[in-house]
Design a protein that fits this description.
Keywords: Isomerase
GO molecular function: isomerase activity
Radius of gyration: 18 Å
Shape: globular
Number of strands: 4
Largest sheet: 4 strands, mixed
Strand content: 5-15%
Helix content: 40-55%
Organism: Microbacterium paludicola
Distance between the termini: 10 Å
Structural class: alpha+beta
Order of helices and strands: HEHEHHHHHHHEEH
Domain DSBA-like thioredoxin: 28-230
Protein name: DsbA family dithiol-disulfide isomerase
C-alpha cells in the first residue's frame, strides 16, 4: 500500500527541503475535487481508518489538510443536463455504461456510509467551491467545509458552483456570510487554489483522490478504511523507530 519515496514521482524532490519529524503529527495532504465521487468515499474511509487507531496504546497523531484539484475545469457553472449527460459526453461512453458505472460507485459509497443521489446531482464548475475551502481553512473550518460541500453535492443535489449557494453552505458551518461573499466575488483565494494545482503537477498527481503521507509516501485512490489505519500505524511506528509486522 505504501509507495517508497523514490516511487512517488516528484514528491521527494518537491519536499526535499522539509526535514522529517518537523511536527509531532503525521501530515496527510489530500488532493481531491468536490465533484469527485471517489474523493468523498476516500475522505470517509480515511476518517474511519484513523478513527480505528484512536484506541491504540500509542495512537498515531495525524493532521489532515485538503488541497484543490479540478477534474473538469472547463465545465460551465450551469451545465445543461444531468450527470449521465455530462459523463457520456465528457468521457464518450454510452449512457448504459455510464448508468452501470454510477450504480457501482453508489454501492461503494453506501458501504462507506454515504447515500449518493446522482439523479438530483447538479454538475457544475468547482473552482469557487475550492476557493471556499481555502477561505474556510483560513478560519480553521476546512474539514467542516469539505464535508458540507461534498454532502451538499452528492447527497442533497445542491448547486455548489454558484456564489449564493456557497455562501449559504459556508454559513451552515459557522462562517461569516458577508466575509465569504466578498472573498468569493473578489477571487481572494484563487491563487491558493492555483498553488495547490501547481503542487499536484510537481508531485506528478494526475488523478484524485491522492494522499501524500508525511511528504514521503503517495497513496492513490479511495482505499478501504483498513488500509488507511495500517498506513497510519506503519508511518507512526517508523517515526518512532519501531518495527511493525507487514
Amino acid at each position: 500500500m505504501l509507495r517508497p519515496r523514490d516511487a512517488v514521482a516528484g514528491i521527494a524532490r518537491a519536499r526535499r527541503d522539509v526535514a522529517p519529524g518537523v511536527t509531532d503529527a503525521i501530515k496527510i495532504d489530500v488532493w481531491s475535487d468536490i465533484a469527485c465521487p471517489w474523493c468523498y468515499i476516500g475522505k470517509r474511509n480515511l476518517e474511519s481508518g484513523l478513527a480505528a487507531t484512536a484506541d491504540d496504546e500509542d495512537a498515531p497523531r495525524v493532521e489532515v489538510t485538503f488541497h484543490s484539484f479540478e477534474l473538469s475545469p472547463d465545465t460551465p457553472v450551469d451545465f445543461e443536463g444531468d450527470e449521465l449527460d455530462f459523463l457520456s459526453s465528457h468521457k464518450g461512453m454510452p449512457r448504459e455504461q455510464v448508468e452501470q458505472m454510477l450504480e457501482n460507485v453508489t454501492g461503494v459509497a453506501k458501504d462507506a456510509g454515504l447515500d449518493y443521489h446522482f439523479d438530483i446531482l447538479q454538475h457544475t464548475n468547482t473552482v469557487k467551491a475550492h476557493e471556499l475551502l481555502h477561505a474556510a481553512k483560513a478560519e480553521g473550518r476546512q474539514h467542516e467545509m469539505a464535508e458540507r460541500l461534498m454532502a451538499a453535492y452528492f447527497t442533497e443535489g445542491r448547486h455548489v458552483g454558484r456564489i449564493d449557494e456557497l455562501v449559504e453552505l459556508a454559513a451552515e458551518v459557522g462562517l461569516d456570510r458577508d466575509a465569504i461573499r466578498a472573498a468569493l466575488e473578489s477571487g481572494e483565494h484563487l491563487p491558493a487554489v492555483r498553488a495547490d494545482q501547481d503542487q499536484a503537477r510537481a508531485y506528478g498527481i494526475n488523478g484524485v483522490p491522492f494522499f501524500v503521507i508525511d511528504g514521503r509516501y503517495g497513496v492513490s485512490g479511495a482505499q478501504p478504511a483498513e488500509a488507511f489505519a495500517q498506513i497510519a500505524r506503519q508511518v507512526w511506528a517508523e517515526r518512532n523507530g519501531v518495527e511493525t509486522a507487514s
